[in-house]
Amino acid sequence: MDKRQQVFIDGQWRDAADRATFDVLNPATGDVIGTAPMCGRPDTALAIDAAHKAFLTWREAGSEARAQIIYRMYECLMDHQVALGALLTEEMGKPLAEAKGEVAFGAKFFKWFAEETRRVYGDVIPSPWPDKRIVVTKHPVGVVGAITPWNFPNSMIARKLAAALAAGCTMVVKPASQTPYSALAYGDIAEEAGVPPGVVNILTGRASEIAAEMCENPKLRKISFTGSTEVGKRLAAQAGAHMKRVSMELGGNAPFIVFDDADLDAAVEGAMISKFRNAGQTCVCANRVLVQSGVYDQFAEKLGAAVRALKVGNGVEAGVTQGPLIDEAAVDKAREHITDATSLGAEVQVGGDSHELGGLYFQPTLLTNVPRNAKIFSEETFGPVAPLFRFETEEEAIAMANDTEYGLACYAYTADLGRAWRLMDKLEYGMVGVNEGLVSTEVAPFGGVKDSGLGNEGSKYGVDDYLDIKYSLIGGLKT
Ligand code: NAP
Where does ligand 1 bind, in terms of residues with CB under 6 Å? Predict the structure, then answer.
């Protein structure tokens, strides 16, 4: 699949209105790999117009026709899995196997929501009046603006786009500037799958201008955002001023709790996938590893061995399990968290600084005896740094886990079923992994509470974010 260096509006490939572009880099090499259009408000208005025109027919297309096209998108994504994976690694840096896995994961949302298209049920509510009937129907909200991050350039779009199309909405997508090509490839996928022009529009460029047009344009009815809590809050306020609906998938600060009775090998395996997948750059990454004192040393030793076994390098090379970080700011943040923690008494067991490969490569790092006043306890690191904290009791672990403004994912390893249920009740998070370090699947609702966001993606609940409820009262019926 070719690298598209134009944006996709109303079924056509085009440049920004003023023909401005920006460079796109490969984080593994620092090389410029191409350019993308630097769109602004006029381009966004054009895309919204196209999406609005297309909405008027797409919403009437019928669930069967929509389901077939969405399913075809699933097939096209899988047909191009290898090429899309290579594109993703080139612009984002994650190892090729992870990139191909992400494409398959994204594709599954199209398969799932193709099926859900047929299940947008309404209700008939028992009427308190003998001569009246109460009917509830569900309707697509309209044109949706999606703004997505760089860490999962394919699947973060898939979770929104597939659900929106199933509901009968049309979409304008603005991906992160670091990873435009995986997003623009959706233009090719849409064309190949037979999506009508204007139903899917993808434009790259100035985030604040594009967001301002999305918030203020009356033809756009909803904004679905995945990214940092800081930007999400600003965007929600901006959208609120124009009474747009919002879905917000924001940052996290996941606790990963290991109790004395846990299967330690399983806990190490879970911690590795939760913490080090995507070089620690996932919103559901274990950010704080809380370990009960009875197994603390043993767990630290086993985890240390697994961390040492990671292979850092360019994601296109065979056997590499950790690619570069996305940019210099990400490297600085990882280093800052390590320096802060060690200045407060934490010990570096593995790694601790930039990798000898240089550039944006960072050593997989394990810190022990990290104190609770370290920055890494309260801030999202978004890098390959695992800090171990110690606790004594279940109550203390729950209090520590909940001591954050975030509430996205959390994890706990224990063999005690009663405790597992108590944790599921008391941990203030949108997602709980019990004896599991990876919870994402298209069939379950993905979403956070507190500062981690609003709404859910995936599952039977995911389509609700793109539907309005309408109540009709039918009176004057003869009894
Ligand atoms: P980010 O800086 O918030 O950027 C995300 C998107 O917002 C990008 O497309 C960015 O565009 C755009 N943006 C930047 N400034 C904006 C503004 N003023 N108005 C509107 N949009 C704006 O986040 P990131 O660094 O890409 O992603 C990492 C964050 O995303 C982490 O906090 C992570 O936890 C979170 N995340 C959450 C989930 C979830 O499902 N909850 C999933 C993945 C990631 P530009 O690139 O052009 O600046």
Answer: 147-152, 156, 174-177, 207-208, 211, 226-228, 231, 234-235, 249-252, 283, 380, 382, 408, 448, 453
